[in-house]
Amino acid sequence: xxxxxxxxxxxxxxxxxxxxxxxxxxxxxxxxxxxxxxxxxxxxxxxxxxxxxxxxxxxxxxxxxxxxxxxxxxxxxxxxxxxxxxxxxxxxxxxxxxxxxxxxxxxxxxxxxxxxxxxxxxxxxxxxxxxxxxxxxxxxxxxxxxxxxxxxxxxxxxxxxxxxxxxxxxxxxxxxxxxxxxxxxxxxxxxxxxxxxxxxxxxxxxxxxxxxxxxxxxxxxxxxxxxxxxxxxxxxxxxxxxxxxxxxxxxxxxxxxxxxxxxxxxxxxxxxxxxxxxxxxxxxxxxxxxxxxxxxxxxxxxxxxxxxxxxxxxxxxxxxxxxxxxxxxxxxxxxxxxxxxxxxxxxxxxxxxxxxxxxxxxxxxxxxxxxxxxxxxxxxxxxxxxx
Length: 387
What we know:
This protein has 387 residues and is an alpha/beta fold. The protein has helices at residues 4-18, 46-62, 99-109, 123-130, 162-174, 192-205, 232-245, 260-271, 292-297, 308-315, 369-382, and strands spanning 37-42, 67-73, 88-92, 113-116, 135-138, 152-153, 215-220, 249-254, 280-282, 301-304, 320-324, 341-345. The chain starts with a helix and ends in a 5-residue tail after the last helix.
């Protein structure tokens, strides 16, 4: 069911079409030298927007004189304020909320071009069309609702990594000029000093002696859906093995404010019976999202389900061990710094896999605790201390 804002947006679009007031232009009429202001849309999940950052960097290189504004989901926007290739951030609440205000703001900003780097939520594209942006381009997977509002769509390559799919949009617009603009490193600034300051403060407040070398293993124990969440009992067993096997180890539990109670329960279970009370830090709801890059950069290793924080850890070059069963990894698993990242993937037992629609999701149990511990232990054995 459409929201009132979405319904009103569609009515205004129909009126504009009836009056034949469209300003949309085809790709062949684009002159990059005339592009001064660009709107980039990436307002779905955290990982999706991180996947868009290589394309934004490439866009900055190809049109160096243009200002690039990013429309991002409001709850993730703070992560991208320090991106050096973004001029302004426009927070968006999602699900077509405030779409009329979006169209008004787009019109006021007088963008010369709009590039959408995700394939869901048609409202920002509709708002861009209503605002009269002359060139509108989009990732080309699910665009039936948007086809009439686009100058061109990029051919969709389902086998390609999500970063490459977004770079395909830039390649489509700029052709051969984009050939050397294909670097896949994501952009999420975080310095060593910021990481050190964050963890020294957290360790001191947790009563942990920072005078010794500390190895910090991060656990992202939750995920956006239960179907891709490693069972709690496995996290407990992994945590207990790490505390028993690595005397200087500290475990940090990552999660949202809504997961604070679950993280507290997990912390108590890991510490119970190990004689290592106080060596698990609950960060769920205990830090601002803008602190996430520094928190991840200071880790020795990050063990995680298929989540946005996985991609943030990859972006700041923290070693990861990521766990996948139902998710197709060819499009989302780390492709940067492969020596830093371990992907543990098991084939789904059900065919076809219905992923988030599964009523009895137990396939993540296929990943054994010992296999994960061995991979994490190998990383901790060779590097990763906070001085």
